[in-house]
């Protein structure tokens, strides 16, 4: 499994995560650095990966592309006039390489790129202010975004235009779809709302102890969250209750996390930790 991590110091790192022994497979993991690039001239604000492709966005108004299979930097994309705040790949289930890359920016625009060979297809205005987060539906046909304008927007990716927008009671900083696309999650301060994708109806509200800074949907209706509490919390979104919690997972706040396919779970912030997550909790 490959991991990527970005930093305030403008560097992007790539890692390989492997079992310490293969015969028999070890529960202990080894993390090996495969590349490091000073890709940006300003802090890295967001990263994304799918298959062998990876991307980083920065407050220097650029996106850099990487090939994880060859540990190579493929260069920058220059189509922006403001900071890149969120990146997301769309990878169809039958393909090993992503079909599209979507970016969100501080000027409220969303850009759609074809990944072969990374050409801009469409840019459109979705919000009046900076976009905080962007989530692509598993179908690849639509995306949700939340912004500092206090709105939730839905964009039609087939037409490249915003199709719906509503004002929220409080600014949301995170939005994610679950693996099926039937539900989505929105975080605002220490609360996370679990919504039906069909009509945006609120099913549960998950109360964290402190502000939530990152979230990653897992299998079986599990949602992993982290933030100012320094802990990793696994929520059962079918019941709205905590499934389990890794207390004090880090010495400082958690800034980002991601769940791999299968049982390997990794989390990224000022340092990098990898956790084996059992499905039999």
TrEMBL record:
Cross-referenced InterPro entries, in alphabetical order? PAK1-Kinase_Regulator, WD40/YVTN_repeat-like_dom_sf, WD40_repeat_dom_sf, WD40_rpt
One Pfam match: WD40
- What superkingdom heads the lineage? Eukaryota
Which Gene3D superfamilies does the UniProt record give? YVTN repeat-like/Quinoprotein amine dehydrogenase
Which named protein is this?
Uncharacterized protein
Source organism: Gossypium mustelinum (Cotton)
């Amino acid at each position: 499994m490959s991991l990527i991590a970005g930093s305030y110091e403008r560097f992007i790192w790539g890692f390989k995560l492997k079992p310490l022994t293969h015969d028999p497979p070890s529960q202990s993991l080894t993390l090996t650095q495969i590349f490091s690039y000073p890709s940006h001239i300003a802090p890295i604000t967001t990263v994304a990966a799918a298959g062998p492709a990876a991307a980083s966005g920065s407050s220097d108004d650029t996106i850099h592309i990487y090939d994880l299979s060859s540990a190579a930097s493929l260069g920058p994309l220059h189509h922006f006039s403001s900071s890149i705040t969120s990146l997301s790949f769309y990878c169809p289930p039958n393909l090993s390489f992503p079909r599209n890359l979507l970016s969100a920016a501080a000027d409220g625009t969303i850009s759609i790129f074809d990944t072969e060979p990374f050409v801009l297809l469409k840019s459109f205005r979705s919000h009046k202010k900076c976009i905080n987060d962007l989530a692509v539906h598993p179908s690849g046909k639509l995306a949700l975004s939340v912004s500092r304008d206090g709105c939730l927007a839905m964009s039609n990716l087939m037409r490249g235009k915003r199709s719906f927008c509503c004002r929220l009671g409080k600014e949301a900083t995170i939005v994610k779809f679950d693996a099926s696309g039937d539900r989505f999650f929105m975080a605002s301060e220490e609360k996370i709302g679990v919504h039906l994708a069909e009509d945006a109806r609120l099913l549960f509200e998950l109360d964290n102890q402190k502000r939530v800074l990152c979230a990653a949907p897992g299998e079986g209706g599990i949602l992993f969250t982290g933030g100012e509490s320094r802990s990793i919390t696994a929520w059962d979104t079918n019941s709205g209750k905590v499934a389990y919690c890794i207390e004090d997972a880090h010495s400082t706040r958690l800034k980002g996390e991601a769940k791999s396919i299968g049982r390997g779970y990794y989390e990224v912030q000022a340092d990098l930790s990898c956790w084996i997550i059992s499905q039999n909790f």
